[in-house]
Amino acid sequence: MSGNPIQIIPRWSTDRGHADHGWLKTFHTFSFANYHDPRHASYGALRVINEDRVAPGTGFGMHSHQHFEIFSYVVGGQLEHQDSMGNTEVLSRGALQSTSAGTGISHSEKAHGPEEVHFLQIWALARPGDGNKKPAYFTRNFPDEEKHNRFVTVVAPDNSSSVSLSREDKGPAPIRSELWMHASLIDPGVSLVHGHVEKGQGQPRKGYIHLIQTSGYNSGKPGGNAIRIGSKSSAEDSKVELREGDGAYLVYESHDLEVTNVGQGKAEVLLFDLD
User: Fold this and answer.
1) In angstroms, rounded to a whole number, what is the distance separating the alpha carbons of residues 44 and 229?
2) Per-residue pLDDT averaged across 5-32, rounded?
3) Pfam families given for it (predicted)?
């Protein structure tokens, strides 16, 4: 994009795949289920971002996965998880549940209690060879105050020095993929700068950003919260404004990303670093 050292390609919420099944209201950033668009099949290791709302007393019954790294980020309500490894738990706002499917697992994800559960299910491609390892399961919790006006790393490669391989612990959940996920809650008027992970001399790094649709399911237009993104050194008119549900593909050359909340309410943001 001219005038912006970071290449930004918006992924507008109104262009995402979406469906209202009654019990499930969902948006698909990438091709998934009955939604297929070859322009939006994956990006680096990132394969799926589904923003799901599941009605009380319903959910995804027991089903199987192999090879992928699958993690859920809970925005509201309570998510009940059960799987073939014997894990059973209820996850609330701020919880991050991660499963390395490996050679194969079965799991169910359902709304627990009287309220709808709003969560993002994200899939990443495992590193070559790592998709055939024994399945693994991890949970982490990131309270709102921890993410307030700062980016907190909530998922990181399992070979990173910052991760613990304990089932429950502090810090990011480990995955067998070259992907980092950061989360933040940004107050109106606040700007954050994210220093992307360096790939090497002259080698650009990919990224992706998503503004969570916290004001409710809306398939016709984005919600009210908004952020403006671009390089800190860029002119304001070359930056890109995203509203709830919008995302953007990023290519970093040599600059960091500035994210500014230009809306009226708190902006809940997910930011990915990709190989």
Assistant:
1) 20
2) 94
3) Pirin (PF02678)
Q: Which residues of 204-238 are buried (b: 16+ CB within 10 A; e: fewer)?
A: ebbbbbbbbbbeebbeeebbebbbbbbbeebeeee
Residue written as tokens 């998503």? 210
**What distance in Å separates the CA atoms of residue 14 and residue 222, rounded to the nearest whole number?**
7
| CB neighbour list of residue 221: distance below 8 Å, 6 or more residues apart | 14
User: For the chain, what is the domain count?
Assistant: 1
* Domain interval for residue 32: 7-274
Q: How far apart are CA 83 and CA 249, in angstroms?
A: 33
Q: In what order do the strands lie in the sheet with 88-91?
A: 59-65, 105-111, 79-83, 88-91
Residue 112 included in any domain: yes
Question: Sign of the CA dihedral 235, 240, 244, 245?
Answer: negative
* Dist CA 78 CA 133 (whole Å): 30
- Token pair, residue 261, equals 């909340």
* Domain membership flag for residue 70: yes
- Residue 105 in 3-state DSSP? strand
pLDDT digits (tens, 9 = 90+) for 153-204: 999 999 998 899 999 999 999 999 999 999 999 999 999 999 865 555 556 7
- Sign of the C-alpha dihedral, residues 214, 238, 206, 256? negative
**Cβ count within 10 A of residue 87:** 16
CATH of the domain at 104: 2.60.120.10
Helices (H), 134-245: 144-147
> Considering the domain boundaries, does residue 64 fall inside one?
yes
Is 1 inside a domain boundary?
A: no
